[in-house]
Amino acid sequence: MMSYLVTIVIFVSIAGLVGLALNLQWGLAGLVNFGVSGFVALGAYMVALTAPHLGWLAATLTAALLCAAVSMALSLLTIRLEENYLAIVTIGFAEIVRILLLNESWLTGGALGIADIPRPFASLTPAGWGDGIILVFALVLVALVYGLMEGLVRSPFGRVLRAVRDDATVAAALGKPVLALRVRAFAVGGAVMGLAGALHAFFMTYIDPSQFTPIITAYAFMAVIAGGRGSNLGLLLGAGSIMLLLEATRFLKDLVPSIDGTQLSAMRLALIGIGIILLLILRPQGLVAEPRRTVRDVFPDATGES
Amino acid sequence: MSAAFLEVEGLTKHYGGVAALDGCTLSLAKGEVTGLIGPNGAGKTTLLNALTGLAKPDAGRVTFDGADVTGLPAHRMAARGVVRSFQIVRELASLTVFETLLLAPPHQIGETLTGAMARRRRWWAQEHANAGKARTLLERIGLWRLADQPSARLSGGQKKLLEVARALLLEPKLILLDEPGAGVSPPLREEIIALVRELKGEGLSFGIVEHDMHLVGEICDHVHVLAEGRTLVSGTFAEATADPRVVDAYLGLAA
What we know:
The structure holds two protein chains of two kinds.
Chain A: H1 2-28, H2 36-54, H3 56-79, H4 85-103, H5 105-108, H6 132-153, H7 156-166, H8 168-173, H9 178-204, H10 215-227, H11 232-248, H12 252-255, H13 261-282, H14 295-298
Chain B: E1 4-15, E2 18-29, E3 33-37, H1 44-51, E4 59-64, E5 67-68, H2 74-80, E6 82-84, H3 97-103, H4 113-118, H5 120-140, H6 156-168, E7 174-178, H7 186-201, E8 205-209, H8 213-219, E9 222-227, E10 230-235, H9 237-242, H10 244-251
């Protein structure tokens, strides 16, 4: 049971990292990225290929850098097109990554994947600790990224991204370099998705292309929608509740013996869907509202209305 | 008339087969309020778009403050001090009134990625200084008590005032207003007129596209009448309105 719980916490951490990244790209900057699973896969494979040679830290950083560079290139290619094309191009990107991973078996092992990925601090782990170290690693990673993202959301950088999301023309007329801002937001988001992929690879120690399906993208969007666009705290709550729902519904069959496994797995997704619809009806702004700079933040003594 | 500040020479812009601007030539003087009037479809908004980088002219030249600025992108024009408002107010819906004004000032350290992450203390100090200016401005235009409201919740006239305030924080040299009086209640319109006059007194230059002739007559030192993408008549408001060609243009008889 303990190791099951640890596994869930780590899966929530991975989903949380992916969600935090999408929350910056889409939640804050309004850039639709339907290729999330491609970036996560890229990060995971980069770690799998480099960790045995470079060590875990350098491998993780390489994965983040590669994903940032690819995001940057992709956004520069497409951002000059009309906005919605980014969505289409990112779908294509994820598909290209999937097909490359499957077919370039000299590098990626093809459908067999890559095994024996060394975990961080593996030699230091006392016997019987199991996944303890990787759990700490995951939580520290989430905490670091959360801190970074909170810093960005609450800074003028976050504010100017919200302005670009609301109306890019107005932002440009106010002297803001819209293209450069979008590329930066997309690159930082991509780097964090690479980190999520790295964590995934370290935890599983074995990766293959079937682990990186578009469902990762779907869960990330659900988490951002449920949590509230732009709010990192909401995002973590959203990612957590979706994972909780997914896992908790596993035990439905103990309560309702008349349904079998296949029906259950179909029902679980339906339940998540109903949950999202209810949330959007009852709380359209998501669980937590986007943080805003209020008068009180700057003038603590001000007594404004509202 | 004082020295030309913004000069437009033979500016042309086609949309498909339609020439929205057809060799438009005019100039805006420093420290004055210049009105740009003319019937619908005369090319006024296209001219404003071409002057602020939102439309790339097909031909012609724009010089501002002695430098050639033809076809510069929008954020570059803003950086040079040419700032505009929009005919249909485009507020940043999810930003509060206060945040809208904090957004506007140029050269914010915290708007760069490294600045936001690594130089927190410096951008926070800058934010404080900007907040002080924003507060003064909001008190001046009477929106301070609404500072924490989302700007989407303001009335049409309040949004126009906020747009002018937003433009002011960009440290502009020339403000181009696209129909500041349209859809604004009479008391707020008087407030906008008063604000433009005050700011002109402080040395700012304005270009104003407007259909409300009362407003144009009140605040414009000089007007250009546009018709079919060209300057038809230039002069004082009284001269322009007395010209029979202007009357013809408004009645649809222009050549």
